Amino acid sequence: MKSLMIDLDDTLVSFTDLFVYKANKMISREKMYKHERLETSDFTTYDLKSGFEKHWKNMPPNNQQAIYTHCFNEIMKDEDLYDDIQLSQDYDKIMDIAMKYKRNGYKIVLNTKVITKEMLIAKSKFIHENMNLFQGFDNIVLDYETGVIEPKPYYYDVMIDDSPKNIEYYLEKNKTGMAYMPKRCWNKHLEGRERIHFI
Asked: Do 35 and 26 form a contact (C-beta atoms < 8 A)?
């Protein structure tokens, strides 16, 4: 059976917005760096650390790294992380594409990475409490990895993901695969590439 894989973070849900919101709450609460607030517009590459570097470009790199590491580690340890998450602006379009493929016999798979046990709990809880959002899926994969995060599997016939790393790896390994991407500032350099359709 042919298959279509859909990513979760910054594809179906607005993870970067949530991350910025949580980081700003932490920065304010802990009185770090004069309550300067990060903006979602600071995050223009797929690497979250680059948003801190861009926002605090005049700060010594060690200080940038310290703020980022503290915020990232604390946020990834939050079992309630996904309680405040919002659907992405592309959720309906993505689900329309998925259901079109499903009607044509494709298996629909949600495949999302988790890097801590707390994130695994947070995503599991979000999915369980919002099963109406995932009714059309045939399989849900929470891929738990620590250390270096590997790209998503490339054996799917179609992939929907915001990550340039995942999509480039997928297209390199799967010579007949087709990709859809929700347009994000960190993937716009792939516009016009063969076998990539922007949503």
From this structure: no
